[in-house]
Structure formats: structure tokens, C-alpha cells
Amino acid sequence: MDSPFVVWDAADPKGLESWVSHWESWPSREVYAHPNYVRLFSNETNRAMCAAWRSNRGCVIYPFLLRDIAAEPFCGEVPTRAFDIVTPYGYGGPFRWGETDPQNLADRFWSAFSEWAARQSIVSEFVRFTLFPEDILFYPGEREEKLMNVVRSLDIDGGRIWMGYEHKVRKNVNKARRSGVRVEIDLSGERLDEFMYIYSGTMDRRQAHKEYYFPRRFFECLRDGLPSRFAFFHAIHEGKVVSTELVLVSTESVYSFLGGTSGEAFDLRPNDLLKHEIILWARKNGKHRFVLGGGYTSEDGIFRYKKSFAPSGCVPFYVGRRVLNPYLYATLVDAKCRWAREGGREWGPRPGYFPDYRA
Fold it and tell me: What's the CATH class of domain 149-316?
């Protein structure tokens, strides 16, 4: 009898096919767990993988990136190969569904996962969790609450959604309309060049970290690998895109993913109209919530802006941390300390950063 526990590598055609099949059997079909989403973040040293549990008593899907620590410059000091795990940018698993005994499912999954991880010399694990705890398998590691995120419930009539915005949002939506701004829905990425121009300009203006600058190939792979699981929304004024947003689409939720606004168009308030139209579109298409996300820091301007669309829709975002091989973990930290000293520098773990050796 086949084991209900399995690990798939998206680089293996059979593994990819099994991963997609398992994902399609899941009622929620969260886009962040699709292999073609996870593969967006894979490269020569990061492999897109998925641990799964398949049984008539419950299912688990846990997508992650398996990172080869040998790529780190200090690893010449380490006598063995080592790997760690991180979930990709966004909201991740381990997700569960169909369980008859959640605790038993968690115990069996994590027992099998730990055995597999030990064979693979996996040192540590960092998880970005979904915002919806009812979908998450019990996690045996440390969970930490990070920034609050904003979720706009769509399970009420349109009038109540409109009146649920802060007054300034309604005012700005009306101003954008009076100014002649209209919103175009782009389901094929036809205006990708215009999206990238505005997105890159927005990142420049915010002095964003380099990890938020995605190459054109990233968006092309998303477009080609996730049909019907994304949509571009463009606010257009006098024939020109002035604000734009890429959203990801799951069975029940729509997620604000990446976007921006031209600095020259701020006075038109196009982004308020854009988000309002996304909400209307999501509700029309049977979605239950629009996830606007959070800010860079607690209560910054970005977070407050998002909150204005759902003042009572704040939910905590959690991350998970786990050391799976304490000996190798300590060895890596020591190796990085020696490597830094040999280079004439002092180095030490940064408080709050995990894993320590990647700080």
C-alpha cells in the first residue's frame, strides 16, 4: 500500500503532474500553493517542492522552496551538504482539508515530514502562513505574529460594502470618476509593459528593497503558468494607464499582489477607484474576500490606506520558525562567524531574523 505522505519536485514532470492533480482536488485551490506559483521563485539553488498527505481522512498540501545552503559563501567550512526550507513570497501552507481528526492528521503528517527532512539534511524551516487559520494544519514550531493585514469581506450587499469604506475613499472614488478615470480589466496581460513601467516607478519612489523588483520574465511566467488565476486592473485617464494592480485569484479569495500609481496622477485618485472596481469584480465572480495585505511597517501610510477600505477587517499575519537539525544549525552559525572574521569583519545573528546563519 502506498504511503499517504509524498514529496514532489516541480522539476520532475511526474511530480509536477501529481502536485497539480492534488491541488485541483482541493476545494479552496489557493493560488499560492499551485506549483506554477512556487516555481516563480525557484532558481539554480532553490527548488520548488511540495509535501503532501492524501487519504480519505484528510489531505495536506505544503508547498515550499528547498534551498541549498552550499550556495552561501561561508559553507566551505561545513563538512556536509545542508538545506533549508522557506515558503515563497505571499501566504503559504501547510494547508489542510477534509480532515476527520485534525490533530491526528497533523501528528502523522509531521512525523513523516520530519523523517523525510532528516534524510535530506534539512536544517531549518521558515513559513509565511495564510491569514485564515481554519485552513492551516497545526504547526509544531514557533509561530510569531507579525504585521496586521487587511481583508475586505465580500459577503454583504454592495451598498454596505460602499458605506463600509472610510468617507475619504468614497470621496476619492467619486472624484476619480468625475475626472474621467475608467478601469479596464486585463485577463491576458496585454498591457504588461505599462504595468511594469508604473510598478517599477512606484518601487523607485518608495525606495523598496531589491527583492520587490521582479524581472519581466517573472510576470510572463505568472501569466503563462496561471491562466484564470490572475487579473490585471488598469485605471486609465486620457488613454494612458495611471494606476495598475495585479491580483491573484483563488476559489474564495482575491489577493492584491503587486501594483502602483503614477506620481503625476495622484490628484486624480485613480487607485481608490481601482480597488473599488476590484472589489466589485471579485464579488460579482463569487469571491468571499479581497485581501489587500499590509504595510512595510506597523501603522505606516500604506497600511492605513488599505485599512480605509475595510476599517474592521484587520487580521494578524503569522510566520513560523523551526530548527530541524540543531547540530547543523549551530555548525552553520559558527562557520559564518569564522568566515566573517577571516574576511576582517565581525558578524553576529541579527535579532528577529531567521535563520540566524542567513542574516
Answer: alpha beta
